Amino acid sequence: IINNYLDGTQGGAVDKASLSGMHFRDSRRKVDYVLAYHYRKRLTQHPPGVGSPESTRGSASSALVSNGGTGKSRAEPQRQDGGQHGSQGPPGAEVIELGPLDTLEEEKRLQREEYERNLVEAGLEIEKDPENKSQGLSFVRIHAPWQVLSREAELLKIKMPTKKMYEITEEGGILKTLNEIWRKLTEPLQPQVPQQGNTNMKSLSYPFSREKIYLYNIKDKDTFFDNATRSRIVREILKRTSTKARNSMGIGTLIANNVYDAAYPLHDGEYEGQNDDMNERKLLYREWARYGVFYKFQPIDLIRKYFGEKIGLYFAWLGLYTEFLIPSSVVGIIVFLYGCITIESDIPSKEMCDQHNAFTMCPLCDKFCDYWNLSSACATARASHLFDNPATVLFSIFMALWGKSTMFLEQWKRLQMRLSYFWDLTGLEEEEVSFPLPEHPRPEYETKVLQKKLKNKNITTENSNEDEKEKLTWNDRVPGYAANFGLILFMIMLTFSAVFGVIVYRITTAAALSFSTNETTKSNVRVTVTATAVIINLVVILILDEIYGSVAKWLTEI
Length: 558
Description:
The protein is α+β, with helices and mostly antiparallel strands. Helix content is 53%, strand content 8%. The strands form three sheets. A four-stranded antiparallel beta sheet has the order 2-3-1-6. Strand 2 (125-128) and strand 3 (135-143) form a beta hairpin. Helix 9 (250-256) packs across helix 18 (443-455), helix 11 (300-307) packs antiparallel against helix 12 and helix 12 runs antiparallel to helix 16. The longest helix has 41 residues, at 474-514. It is extended. InterPro entries: Anoct_dimer, Anoctamin, Anoctamin_TM.
């Protein structure tokens, strides 16, 4: 869908000034969100003169622009006519009969028109591609003007920087000296990302308020809200805008009902190519999202600016976790090398591998297995010493102290508090508790509630409370709980069956290989059985993981 959007914007549907598809046709208003949908309509034959090129040229060359004034006067009558008689195709076009799909497509079209009208009423500006084909993929571009952004930012209590600045001072002494030495040592590992102003100065942030707009450092209204904030605001409007058709609640329900195919914000331009235009997406690709820069630190502030605070915190945690794995891997390699060095002096391995001390062991099974020599397990004993030696105890103690219990957890708490301070996330949890925003339920849940509401619409009593919110009761949830319980029980039995099957495989394979006439095969029965059982376990785990993921997704949606 995204590739088709870019191809459509570069295929002559827009002006040369907006070939990247990032702006409206006026090349001024930025595209904050895109709605994509497939349309399908029936071409009808018309008498000569009705479908003349003069009458159809306007339909093919203009797009609907709401709140912008471009092409709206011509597109509206054609849209009304298309809703009654179908869309006009080129002269001499053949009739495409869609049968029962006509009613469904017409219903989707009406829902889209009503939803887009409600978006315009909410203050958003939209621009649509002309539907000049019998079927295809079309896009609705959405722009949020300053009035909408400021209103929603105040409603969502988004913190924005004010004109008040203060200096961030660092502690002196030996810690400052160590930090400077560390910065010089890690300078080649730092991403080449331009600094945003003076790093020692910080703006005081405050929840946005239109009444106190003089407090904020607004240099340009078009860039005051960054792309992530603009996308978040538009997304909130899309989620709460409803339609009367099928009582749809927001864009999530419309996508679930296939009225729209997708809804997404645009990236910040191209990241590949030889052009010199640098944008944040290309900068992230060069300094972060490539295998060639795996050794560098993450530009975490740029990640937060481009994707938002949630994604920024996630990658901050992932980066810290990866950094803490480096010392753990180094200690693990040292333990492994210690095992390699001391393998010749390991007493249990020497006794098992000594051919002069022939220890005869009891058979591994009752009837068909023969006595076997302990020296046949020499390779297994030497290999186990590499990973299980006296240094492993020290490695376990190191991991217990280095892991979640102490070092890693405490370091993550410090990093999280530091990022919360610099990203103005302090007090966010208290605000969510004091002023909780309404949570939007899943589209599938909304659909079931609406179906129940329509089913009980005619069943009213005198004592019914009209203001009571409709919700699913215990009787409505019983089938879902029964399906959940049955499938979970089945998956537990399937897991036990897989484990039992591997055990049976080990027993039968060991017994079968014991009858082999090949001495090499007979002497390596344990190694063969163990290795193949491990591979089977790995394959079973991967398969069951995919099955569990699909079943969990299906159980969530029912």
